[in-house]
Write a structure and sequence with these properties.
Layout lengths: L1 E5 L5 H10 L3 E5 L10 E4 L4 H11 L1 H10 L4 E4 L1 H6 E4 L10 E6 L10 E6 L7 E6 L4 E5 L4 E6 L2 E7 L2 E4 L10 H21 L1
Pathway: Cofactor biosynthesis; pyridoxal 5'-phosphate biosynthesis
Protein name: Pyridoxal 5'-phosphate synthase subunit PdxT
Keywords: Glutamine amidotransferase, Hydrolase, Lyase, Pyridoxal phosphate
Amino acid sequence: MNIGVLALQGGVIEHLKQIEALGHKGIEVKVAEDFEKIDAIILPGGESTTIGKLLRITGLMECLREKIQGGMPVWGTCAGMILLAKEIENQPFNYLGVMDIKVRRNAFGTQIDSFKTKKVIKSVSDKEIELVFIRAPYVLEAGTDVDILCEVNGNIVAARQGNILATSFHPELTNDLSFMRFFIEEIVHSSLVDNLSIY
């Protein structure tokens, strides 16, 4: 499969490496035409404000929103979670606004408060997964059709809503491919099967 990574700013290369390590093709997405080459897209960590501005400047915001609402699988990590959220605490506007969650920016603190922990996330892997948090957000509120995949210290840090996956942490900064495998095999694959069944 062809998995795109939004390549405007942030941790693009790390995601591409994990995609290719699982035998799929990673494609940098920079212009609208790139959406026609991919089966799914990842919104990497970085600066959500910067990425949001670049989405507007490049005209990609509406195109990306339409693709996601049309069923394209998407995974937002850290800043990507903020981009997907319908509501952002203390901010009067959102970005893509496609996932029924309310998020808090820098919820665990500043850069010096970055940390790692390990958790078993049953829907993803039976083994402990290393979770890397860097100026991470978390979910304050989630809609009834949002599946909570993981909490840390009582805070929601991973969630899924249909074709949309969001994580506060950075699986791409570890050697563990469990989350990338989960995204591709569970969310992307099931979405492609569902689309084929329509025809």
